[in-house]
Structures are given as structure tokens and as C-alpha cells.
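Example for tutorial group B:
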């Protein structure tokens, strides 16, 4: 829930606030940002401009002798904005308030609908109309020839979602993947495992084999998913899609929210987000997101886990043409390490509370990130942009690996591991965005260059530890003497050049073309116990094209077709000592985007085929080496719906049908299903809040989340049954500042396997409750 305290409209109309002599103005019609900049210069006033707020709004211009108040009124007519006066001839822009002086975004109590959204700004309700993940520009979703799904902040608040996994359960074709003993979250998108994701459009460390740490959502505005390959803009990646986290931006209007939560299994969380002007006169604003969380588990022998998160951000509008954003983020976690449930025969053990590690097993992680983004409008058609991001993470674990279940069906062989990992990356993007017309065609051209330097080091020690009887577990075993396991160093430098053109052929037809070239230089150094080492040098380059066409027969419908590609370097060797070529992926997609209710409720229907080729497969003559013959294929149909059916009634839902199979492999049978991918999956979540009467402000929510049968490995040697989970919520807005809510998860207390993977199988949480108090202004 985001609550905003707006200034009273009477203050804006105050004669003292607007007392100005009339001036002669000659401002032609055109982009609102340009008109306001010219007006501020001629009027001699200070007016910070936020491009995210102004977007592509148009102004009718201004001619004649008028005062400041009347000038703003004329320039801003037919827009959702108005001007607010401050001291020292300074003004700021804000969205017009409703008939009430107080406006609660999260519940949409006034029934207003934004006619224009920013790709990075806050949303009202469940429906997003714009995104930047698909083009790196502020583009309407209906203009992008690929399926893109957005989970807005209000969905996170209504569901009280505090993890990426809970948020992404609202998006079609996404399943949980490898959690590295419960220490991170990764996801399978359209059948393929992802190893990283983007934050505000910048990929995290490309050397990582999994996300570095659990992501906290206290400072997250929305989560976007670009379906299918995204290498044309983001470089290396998996062909299933890209997850992009959009963070909350500082505002020049004071805002704050404090949330306290308590729930089942000793769950406790406190978080705060504050934002406001540091200097209105100089266009400087700041925000701070903070969170602390601790929780236990329904599993036996579990230690409590803890998470600490701190993220300050600054935004400075230096003038009407220059904008600077910068931020710092620190997250720290410590938790029980747990590889999950054992496979017995061809099924996952259904005894969800059985703990097969030892109480001393643990995982500690921390991550620090810093970033800045500088944008400058050279003129009204050319914008230059520079983004730099630095990430540094550490992970240490003392854990137990579940090795094999012996023939007696009860004795589990285990091994202890002392693990340390450090990762660093520095990425920089330099981009130019040009808007112009040639021969009656409108162009928005993005040209960019990206450089990335990454390092990753891993050390492991191994030790024996006593076996465990899974039917009568007795804990207390200690690891034996540790010995050398692994000592590896990875260094990478990569360079990318990309070009994209969004072409308006006419009012109905839009064409998207893009291409990217990447060069990667990487050295993998592996040390032996005696200190000697061997190096593997990787030097691949690849070109990633993309093309798409959109046809819009009317304002409500957009039909599209697209082709996109991906690549990912490999480090496995053939028998002749050469490194395998990069994996490649390509997708063909057709779809339709339709406004079921204009400006309220939208749907995306897509059909696609993705082929992932050049996969490494074991060399049939020597398993120590590889050959490049593997191929996987996913064909699917998806439907995603989100928005508002009527005032106070919101809905977000999806369903996917996927045929995900092995096409070629030397080790596994062709036709086997891909790991962790159900044939049918989806969810439907809806809330309704009373808009009037004595119970105004009372709301209800309910949702079902389901997935079919999934296999736990490519051999299809074991599986987990399908499931359907029911969640419910009850909330009440006492006034415009305070919300009380109660969220129930797995209301029917169903036993089910939520994550199935060769690296660990995890049960879904039994029935649980979380109570929340949110206070904001």
C-alpha cells in the first residue's frame, strides 16, 4: 500500500501563492516538457521536471499576457497534472488530487484512472500500460511485439508478498528453480532455468551460476518479466525470458510507509519506506527503504533465519535537460541450509517436516550494490544516457549434501561441505536515444555500448559425516576432518554493441528491429590440492538479432509476431581440448494484446516455440569430456490478465500450457520432459474493496495457485504430483493512513511439493497466517 498526503486544492488557488504580474508569452504547441521548460525560463521561476511524470504528454502552447497561475492552467489543461507553489518562486508538478484532499493509491478509493503511466513510476491498481524492459525505452506494452508481464506494487501489498517467488507466482510459465539450499531464489521461465536477473534494466553479475542473495521487496516498485530471449538488449542469458526488478524512485512530494508483520512459524517483519524533497529549489529528492525479517520453519530442527536490508536513493533534476539518479543497497541474510526432501523410488518423500541435515548447517550471505544513472537531453530529439552499476557479494556455508540413498531404502549417505564464494562485477552502459521522422516514418533509435568486468572465486573443503536413517533420524553428527575440494577463480571481460529501431510505419503498423554483437573474454583457473593449476580460456563472440511487427486495428487490440535470439557461453571441453561454442536459443512468437475493459482490464494471449541448441552432452566415448549435440524445445500457449473489473475490484491471473521436451541428447532419452516444468500451470487472484456505506474500506481477497505434474531431472527418474493452493486475505482501511490486513496461505492445509529440482526438492508451506499493520502518509 502506498499512501500519499497531497496538498489541499485551496492552497493552490490562494491569491498570495500565485500573486504575479502578467507577462507576454509565446510558447508553441509541442511536448509538455519543452513547453514547461520555456515557460519557467520566461517567467523567471524554478520548476524541476520529472521525465517519468511528463512522459510524452502534449501541451497546446501559450500565447498572450497572463499571470503565472493562469499560464500553468493553460499549459496543463487536458493533462492529469497541476502545479504547486513553494517559496522562493519555486514550483513543482503533481497529479491532480481527487475531490478529497487525501488520496490512497493502493485502494483506488476515488475511482480515478491514470491516462498515462511511466515505465518506472508508481502504478494505481493492477494494470500496467508501459514498460522499459522490452525496449529500454518508455514504451506502451501494446507497441512491443513480445509478451511482457508486470506485477505492480499493489499486488505485492494485497498479497503481502515479501519474496520474488510469491510475486512471480502471478506470471504465467514461471516455476521455482534451484534454491542452493534455501539461500537464494531462481526461476524457470518458459521451461528454462535462469541464473540471473536485471535490476532497473542492468543485469547482475553475469558470472554467477545463481542469484547472489534473496531479494528484499521493501524498495521494489514493480517486477517485470520479458518472455523469451533478451540477448539483443541484455547480452548473455537464458532463452526463456528475463526478470527485471524496478525499484521505487524518490519523490518531491513527501511520502512514507511503515509496516509491521507477525505470523505463523515465528514470522516477524518490519519495514519502512520514506521519500521526499531534500531541496525543492534544486530539484533534489531522496528516499530510504529499510527492512528486518526473522522467521522459523514448519520443518523440524530448524534454526531461525534473518534478513537485513538498507537502500538509500537520491534523485536530482539539475535542470530541465539533465537528470541524475544514484543509490546504494545492502542486504544481509543468515539461514538454515537445507537441501530439502529425499527422493524415494520415483517420488519425493511426502513427510514434509523431516530434516535430513544437521542443526549446525547454515548459510550466510551479504551483498552490496551501488549505481548511478545520468541522462541529458541534448535537444528535443536526442537523449544521452550513462548507467554504471557495481555489485559485490559474499556467501559462506557449512552444510551437508545428500549423496545417495542405499539399497535398504533408509540409509542416506551424506557429505559435509565448507563453502566460500565471492563475486564482484562492474558494468557500464553508454546509450543514445534519438527520436525523428524520415519519409513519413517515425523512428525511436537506441544505440548503446556496454562493458562488464566480473570476478568470481569459489573454495570448498569436503568431509565425511555419518549417514542418517531417514525413517528414524537421529541428529548430532559432526563432520570429520576436512580436505581439499575445490579452488577456482573466474575472470571475465565482455563488450557489447547494440542498435534498436522502433518504427511507426503508420497509426496501425509498428516495426521493431534490433541487433547486438557481444565479445566475451573469460579465464577459468582451477587449482589442485598441491597448488598447481589449469586454465580454460573462453573467447566467444556472437550476434543476436531481433525483429517484430505489431498491427493495431483499433485502440483496444494489438496483434504481433516476433523473432528473438539468445546466447550463453560454455566452459566444458571436448576430447581435443577445445571449448564448446556458446549455447544458442531462438524463439518464434505470435500473440494478441487486448483491452477487455478500456483503461481498466487487459489480457495478453501468446503462442511460441523456443529451441535451445548447442547444449553440452556427455561424450559417449569418455564421460570426462563433452560433445555439442544437445537440443531442447518448448512449445506453449499463455494467457495473462490483469487490471480492474470495476471500482475496487482488481484481478490478476494467468494460465500456461507447455510442451517442454528433450529433442537431442546422448545420455537421456529423447522426448523426456524438461526438469521442473509442468504441462499446465497458472493462478488467479482477485480482491474487492467496498467503495461506500458503513463498511467502506473493508476488502476481501482470494486466489488459487496451481501446477501439474513435474519431473525432477532430465532422466525423468522421479516426479511430484500436481497441486492447487488456496490463499485468502481480509483487509480494512481505518482511514487514509492506516490499513489492517490478515493474509492466509494454503487455507485448506494441502500437502504439496512446491519446488522440484535435481539440486533439491522442497515442500510448500502448510496453512499459515500473517497479520499486518501499515501506516503511511
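The residue assignment follows.
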Amino acid at each position: 500500500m502506498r499512501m500519499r498526503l497531497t496538498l489541499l486544492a485551496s492552497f493552490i488557488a490562494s491569491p498570495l501563492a500565485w500573486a504575479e504580474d502578467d507577462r507576454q508569452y509565446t510558447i508553441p504547441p509541442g511536448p509538455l516538457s519543452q513547453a514547461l521548460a520555456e515557460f519557467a525560463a520566461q517567467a523567471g521561476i524554478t520548476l524541476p521536471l520529472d521525465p517519468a511524470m511528463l512522459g510524452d504528454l502534449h501541451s497546446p502552447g501559450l500565447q498572450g499576457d497572463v499571470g503565472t497561475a493562469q499560464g500553468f492552467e493553460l499549459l496543463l489543461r487536458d493533462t492529469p497534472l497541476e502545479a504547486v507553489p513553494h517559496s522562493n518562486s519555486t514550483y513543482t508538478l503533481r497529479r491532480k488530487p481527487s475531490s478529497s484532499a487525501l488520496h490512497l493509491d493502493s485502494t483506488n478509493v476515488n475511482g480515478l484512472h491514470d491516462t498515462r503511466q511511466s515505465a518506472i513510476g508508481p502504478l494505481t491498481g493492477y494494470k500496467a500500460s508501459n514498460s522499459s524492459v522490452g525496449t529500454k525505452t518508455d514504451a506502451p506494452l501494446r507497441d512491443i511485439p513480445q509478451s511482457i508481464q508486470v506485477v505492480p506494487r499493489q499486488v505485492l501489498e494485497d498479497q503481502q508478498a515479501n519474496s520474488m517467488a510469491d510475486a512471480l507466482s502471478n506470471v504465467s510459465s514461471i516455476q521455482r528453480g534451484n534454491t542452493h539450499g534455501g539461500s537464494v531464489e531462481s526461476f524457470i521461465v518458459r521451461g528454462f532455468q535462469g541464473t540471473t536477473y536485471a535490476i532497473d534494466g542492468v543485469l547482475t553479475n553475469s558470472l554467477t551460476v545463481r542469484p547472489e542473495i534473496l531479494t528484499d521487496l521493501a524498495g521494489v516498485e514493480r517486477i517485470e518479466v520479458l518472455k523469451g530471449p533478451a540477448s539483443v538488449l541484455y547480452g548473455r542469458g537464458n532463452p526463456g525470458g528475463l526478470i527485471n526488478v524496478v525499484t521505487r524512485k524518490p519523490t518531491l512530494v513527501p511520502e512514507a510507509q511503515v509496516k509491521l508483520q507477525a505470523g505463523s512459524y515465528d514470522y516477524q517483519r518490519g519495514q519502512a519506506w520514506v521519500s521526499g524533497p531534500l531541496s525543492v529549489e534544486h530539484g533534489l529528492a531522496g528516499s530510504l527503504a529499510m527492512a528486518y525479517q526473522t522467521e522459523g520453519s514448519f520443518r523440524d530442527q530448524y534454526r531461525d533465519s534473518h534478513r537485513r536490508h538498507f537502500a538509500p536513493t537520491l534523485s536530482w533534476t539539475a535542470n530541465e535537460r539533465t537528470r541524475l539518479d544514484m543509490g546504494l543497497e545492502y542486504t544481509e541474510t543468515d539461514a538454515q541450509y537445507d537441501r530439502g526432501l529425499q527422493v524415494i523410488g520415483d517420488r519425493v518423500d511426502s513427510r514434509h517436516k523431516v530434516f535430513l541435515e544437521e542443526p549446525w548447517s547454515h548459510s550466510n550471505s551479504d551483498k552490496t550494490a551501488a549505481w548511478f544513472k545520468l541522462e541529458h537531453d541534448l535537444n528535443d530529439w536526442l537523449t544521452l544516457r550513462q548507467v554504471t552499476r557495481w555489485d559485490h557479494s559474499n556467501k559462506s556455508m557449512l552444510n551437508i549434501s545428500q549423496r545417495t540413498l542405499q539399497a535398504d531404502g533408509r540409509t542416506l549417505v551424506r557429505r559435509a561441505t565448507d563453502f566460500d564464494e565471492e563475486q564482484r562485477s562492474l558494468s557500464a552502459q553508454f546509450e543514445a536515444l534519438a527520436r525523428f521522422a524520415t519519409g513519413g516514418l517515425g523512428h525511436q533509435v537506441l544505440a548503446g555500448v556496454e562493458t562488464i568486468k566480473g570476478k568470481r572465486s569459489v573454495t570448498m573443503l569436503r568431509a565425511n559425516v555419518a549417514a542418517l536413517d531417514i525413517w528414524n533420524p537421529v541428529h548430532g553428527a559432526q563432520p570429520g576432518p576436512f580436505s581439499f575440494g575445490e579452488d577456482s577463480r573466474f575472470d571475465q571481460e565482455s563488450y557489447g554493441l547494440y542498435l534498436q529501431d522502433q518504427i511507426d510505419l503508420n497509426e496501425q503498423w509498428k516495426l521493431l528491429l534490433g541487433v547486438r554483437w557481444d565479445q566475451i573474454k573469460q579465464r577459468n583457473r582451477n587449482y589442485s590440492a598441491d597448488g598447481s593449476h589449469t586454465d580454460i580460456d573462453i573467447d566467444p563472440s556472437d550476434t543476436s538479432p531481433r525483429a517484430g511487427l505489431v498491427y493495431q486495428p483499433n485502440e483496444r487490440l494489438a496483434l504481433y509476431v516476433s523473432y528473438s535470439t539468445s546466447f550463453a557461453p560454455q566452459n566444458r571441453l571436448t576430447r581435443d581440448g577445445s571449448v564448446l561454442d556458446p549455447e544458442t536459443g531462438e524463439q518464434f512468437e505470435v500473440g494478441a494484446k487486448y483491452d477487455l475493459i478500456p483503461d481498466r482490464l487487459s489480457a495478453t494471449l501468446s503462442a511460441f516455440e523456443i529451441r535451445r541448441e548447442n547444449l553440452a552432452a556427455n561424450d559417449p566415448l569418455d564421460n570426462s569430456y563433452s560433445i555439442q549435440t544437445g537440443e531442447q524445445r518448448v512449445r506453449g500457449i499463455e494467457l495473462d490478465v490483469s487490471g480492474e473489473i470495476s471500482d475496487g475490484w482488481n484481478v490478476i491471473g494467468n494460465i500456461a500450457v507447455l510442451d517442454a521436451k528433450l529433442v537431442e541428447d546422448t545420455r537421456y532419452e529423447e522426448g523426456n520432459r524438461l526438469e521442473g516444468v509442468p504441462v499446465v500451470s497458472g493462478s488467479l487472484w482477485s480482491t474487492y474493496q467496498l467503495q461506500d456505506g458503513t463498511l467502506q474500506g473493508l476488502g476481501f481477497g482470494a486466489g488459487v495457485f496451481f501446477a501439474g505434474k513435474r519431473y525432477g531431472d532430465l532422466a525423468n527418474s522421479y516426479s511430484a504430483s500436481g497441486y492447487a493452493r488456496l490463499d485468502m486475505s481480509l483487509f480494512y482501511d481505518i482511514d487514509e493512513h492506516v490499513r489492517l490486513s490478515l493474509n492466509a496461505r494454503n487455507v485448506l492445509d494441502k500437502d504439496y511439493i512446491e519446488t522440484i529440482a535435481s539440486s533439491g526438492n522442497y515442500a510448500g508451506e502448510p496453512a499459515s497466517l500473517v497479520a499486518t499493520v501499515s501506516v503511511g502518509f
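The CA atoms of residues 119 and 131 lie 4 Å apart. Compare this with the pattern of hydrophobic and polar residues in the output above.
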